[in-house]
Amino acid sequence: MTSSLSRDLVFLILQFLEEEKFKDTVHKLEQESGLFFSVKYFEDLVLNGKWDEVENYLSGFTRVDDNRYSMKIYFEIRKQKYLEALDRKERGTAVDILVKDLKVFASFNEDLFKEITHLLTLENFRENDQLSGYRDTKTARTIMLVELKKLIEANPLFRDKLGFPNIKGSRLRMLINQSLNWQHSLCANPRPNPDIRTLFVDHNCRNSNDPYVQLTASNQLISPAAKSESFLPMGTHGPSAAVQIPLTAWMSSSSTITHPVVSGGGASFGTPLHPAAMTKSLGDFDIMSKTRISGVPDRIMLPGKNPGPIHSSATDELPKTVARTLTQGSVPTSMDFHPIQQTILLVGTHVGDISLWEVSSAEKVVSRNFQVWNIGASSMSLKAALIKDPCVSVKRLLWSPDGALFGVAYSKHIVQLYTYYGSHEIRQHLEIDAHVGSVNDLAFINHSKQLSVITCGDDRTIKVWDVATGTKLYTFEGHMDAVHSVCPHSKDNVHFVFSTSVDGKIKAWLYDMMGPRVDYDAPAHSCATMAYSADGKRLFSCGTNKEGESHIVEWNENEGSVRRMYRGFHKRSLGVVQFDTTKNRFLAAGDDYSIKFWDMDNTNLLTTIDAEGGLPASPRIRFNKEGTLLAVSANENRIKILATMDGIMLMRTYESHSLIASRIAPETVTKNGDFRNLEDVKPRLTEEVNPVKNWKLTEISEPSQLHTLRLPARVKTDKISRLIYTNSGNGILALALNAIHLYWKWPRSEVNLSGKATSKVAPQLIQPASGILMTNDLAGAKPEDAVPCFALSKNDSYVMSASGGKISLFNMMTFKTMTTFMDPPPASTYLAFHPQDNNIIAVGMDDSTIHIYNVRIDEAKNKLKGHSKRITGLAFSHVLNILVSSGADAQIIIWSCDRWERQKSTSLHIPSGRTPAAMSDTQVQFHHDQIHFLAVNETQLAIYDSMKLEREKQWVVGESSAPISHATFSCDSQFVYSSFLDGAVRIFNASNLQLRCRIGSSAYLPSDIGSVALYPLVIAAHPQEPNQFAIGLTDGGVHVFEPLESENKWGPPHSPLENGSASNARPLSPIAVSDQHRG
Question: First-to-last CA distance in the chain?
């Protein structure tokens, strides 16, 4: 093979053939390519005496006369073949072997050949002294095989051919998937569900009227070879004729639809479930259209083994390590992790208690016993129920999407909503006398642009309540038994609710008070819970029927049928099984004293974890948002926290207070360490905070006081104007003022097992063999006015970048320019990917406009106008669904992402003695909670609450101090890293902008720089390591910083959490609402 890539391709084909069980073809290719010698296959041939096949296989790797090792190998094989013929008394065959196979060795050792020939004259060759120990054929072959393996290992021709490369499973399929994905992205009229029937030509979506491209619901891209299965499931008399009801049908119809049972059809909501009858659909594809930058979860998958993410095996992504054990005090009945502070766990119990746990420290920070807040306002039925039986349990508790509220549904009538003000503070907000009997479930929705809570109960109803006032908005009636759960969702701007009841019914409702739109049966008439995957694209249900049979299924929403049923449950589950989803990939359920996991694309059980034992028969489970932590209820009133490696790291980062704890604290201005309250701000409620402790600022001025590394560079560049870590944390991308990109990557090694960026190991400067560089288009650019900018896709595969000219889209693997667009003028000055759709980018322009550009259709779908000067910063919040922009006009504007309308705006506070020109490079970045954001320019750091667009914290540069060049949050938003034009780096507490550490330029710059102005222009934070950051310098250099191991983090071990005094203001009284008639 002349090409290393061709060699790699052969290995991939070998892997594919092995996975598809083409065993003969596998070994034929091994022999013909000569790249891999299968010792196992060779052993089987030898031990079975298939001598012709043995020599034929060997011929692909060596010949008799190649070297002395090869000669010895062939001689031993042929001698054994000769002796076996003699032992069978087949002298004619022995003579033939002697003449044709062994005579070749006569020229090398004539005496040996004569001795072998002499064996023909003996009645039994064992009469020869050297062969007297020959016992039987099987033993002789085994002994010879040991010798042959030694010869093969010693033979230099077999070196590098005895080991198969370490390749992730189904790698060839993965590459084909990526190719199909890219081909589809180039289609002029891409179809949402492409019908790809061949790999012989490039895929191209044809006209929808072309009969060749008619789609079927269960169409597959490619089937494993040698399979004769039909694309559609076959019944007794041919293809299924099951009636299919699309989602759009019940969305638009006012009448109830009952799904019929059809004999011989695919499984549906109303049909008995048999795995063999289930539709073998790949599911709905969300394939990128024109130049789509798609992440791993969006890729097209071929049938067969699911290779999973190429960086790790599937089970490595699951939380399996018992990292913490919490002792609750009573039996946990419901749990939920905070959506932002992902180590805060909310727990409800069978005696009605609720608790907040900080799982990183295993500390119960809040605990409340059950009580009716306003018994006088309660209904008579509630009072009677409590008198009859005062025992109340928590049926369900849940955080609101932004984590500002949580709701608790109790086993008697009521729902209570609490406001969350930080790690140690919750306040009563709203009490609703919602249902007669138990309230079995609740969920939050944003319907009609207002936050509402949905509840369901034993009284067979579902109700919707306004969270702010407690007003009842809707009541849905139609179930014939107690309603067990609700699952609200929206699709194409249509809001709807699925509900399940204990009699195994599933209904769907629109917010129009016209009754249920569908009426289906859950699998095996089980009491089920429904849930969507995190991306809202896949619908699942899990339940248990009265006989103890449990089922997890994925539904085809559009057809009202079961897409797949997952196997692996215990035959008789004890209690109703609970389940959860995570990472848009995994399902988990508590069953049979363990936690069971499935890959969403594979119906077989992936793995089972017992969490070191001590689990109940059907444990309660709950993932955090990122799937790095899993809370599991255990015996003896305990909760076990299982974690991935990322989860363990996450718990370490949340041991101190987050910014959420100060979300309503009084605004504070810091001027070079001097705190003062703003006089022009109205007083607001505040929580009690710890007083400031006396502490000393950490000053770092020597290289020995920290770890720092200047990244190697062979390419001559100008000033580093933009800098970012890759999302995986294993690389750094820089953009220089001369439009050249530099990309460093840290390889895995014995000294860097994780392969993550570190200051302790030098990375590699990546450059393709072609020698090309990622260089931005400069045609039409004005170098003196150009503002370099770039944005990296979530999967690190693509970067969009501009340096005053067109925007370029680069492939990060090949460095090739895939496309360019948006000719100047105006020139782009800032780029940001939409958090939910990589096809949408916000482009800030130097003419003060913001273009919402759709890469799929290659045009700007919206143009936002509001600034008066060029755009200098853009940031999306996926929680609030807003875009924040900043400009050289000192304005900050908030835009809605639904209709791209201007919502709020404010002007930056300009310190006295400064001119508006000083605000020209204001940039914005969202805090980890996606509610607060950091605004930074050369005069100040400021933190804003985006919901109110009010400044809560500010740090102002002193008049005699060097200006700020750039600043950024740490990955956990605990710190703000800020670089200055005098070369210093300052590190602040994000909660109060208290300066905690200062790194002088002498700690990382050489002492012999002379009068050269050398300082950092940009700063970037590592996406997983909160104490690591990097800076880009004016000389084109990039430095990575980390604290010493002895210090573990920047600054003093204990720093103040907040500045100011506690407020004595009393919290507002909670609202009490009842839906029952009072007596």
Answer: 91
